Amino acid sequence: MLDYGTNVAAGVTPGKFGEWVENVPVFDSVPQAVQKSGAKCSIIFVPAEHFYSAVEEAISAGIKLIVAITEHVPIRDELKTVDLANSKGVTVIGPNTPGLIIPARKVKMGIMPVPSFTPGRIALFSRSGTLMYEIANELSLAGFGQSLALGIGGDPINGTTMIDWFDWVRGRGDIDAVVAVGEIGGDSEERLAHYISDTRFPKPVFAYIAGRAAPKEKKMGHAGAIIYGNLGTAGSKISAFRDAGVQVAMTPAEIPGLVSEKLRR
């Protein structure tokens, strides 16, 4: 993150106060770090069993944006996190997210490989980290840079949803189109499709759904990627997107061609 240009103001590890890592001061607590450094955001890497206490500490310190890299957070703790964040006006990205990157501003809060991302006018939102990198790379090679790329998170419950981020970009003049990367499990993509249709989302939307060949009722990778009956299948998500006027790619490599056809007419 430092190499990319992110202003990492402080680190927090209990018992390590006074140490320095890569010229960044380390503190015992988030309130102490915020008071001394003026940090505005927090990125969380703690083990899953300590996740909720880390969120509580960050919110109590006045942090308003939390990027939660931690995966396999207990569902009860995820529910508590969403409830607390909503009550305090805090935005939580994740958990189980690779983070976010804003190429034009050289801001990276996460673990993504920076060579895949270039500055541009495409917003990229993904449930899968590695697919976010791959599709960003495909877009970049085709000359379509990204204004923002963000991982929604692969756990069953997330602090923010695709719909939240579509709401955020819908009126922005610096974003020409949105790419949504989904996967089997849950109904977030179906809900997003209804949102796009019901609100007449004003920007072109392109999508890719991973897991078309996944067997039913089997957990595939992410904790949230599980299918029950016809709920959460790749087919149901693809159909919902197409019904909403979203162009759906069958492979990640098809995304740039669809974008080019729409934006370069």
3D architecture notes:
By secondary structure, the chain is α/β, with parallel strands linked by helices. The protein has 2 domains: 11-93, NAD(P)-binding Rossmann-like Domain (Rossmann fold, 3-Layer(aba) Sandwich); 99-263, Succinyl-CoA synthetase domains (Rossmann fold), CATH 3.40.50.261. The chain is built from 8 helices and 13 strands. It has a 7-stranded mixed sheet with strand order 8-7-10-9-11-12-13, sandwiched between helices. A 3-stranded mixed sheet has the order 1-3-2. Helix 2 runs parallel beside helix 3 and helix 6 packs parallel to helix 7 (234-243).
List the SSEs and their pairings.
Layout: E1 11-12, E2 20-21, E3 24-27, H1 30-37, E4 41-44, H2 51-60, E5 65-68, H3 75-88, E6 91-93, E7 99-102, E8 107-110, E9 119-126, H4 129-141, E10 146-151, H5 162-169, E11 177-183, H6 188-198, E12 205-210, H7 234-243, E13 247-249, H8 255-263
Q: In a nutshell, what does this entry contain?
A:
With 265 residues, the protein is an alpha/beta fold.
Defining traits:
single chain, 265 residues, alpha/beta, Rossmann fold, 2 domains, seven-stranded mixed β-sheet, three-stranded mixed β-sheet, 31% helix, globular
What's the helix-strand series? EEEHEHEHEEEEHEHEHEHEH
Relevant CATH superfamily of the largest domain: Succinyl-CoA synthetase domains
Order of strands side by side in the largest beta sheet?
8-7-10-9-11-12-13
Largest sheet: 7 strands, mixed
Round the mean pLDDT to the nearest integer and report it.
93
Q: Radius of gyration from the CA trace?
A: 19 Å
Percent strand: 15-25%
CATH topology of the largest domain, what is it called? Rossmann fold
Instruction: Note the gap between the termini.
Output: 37 Å
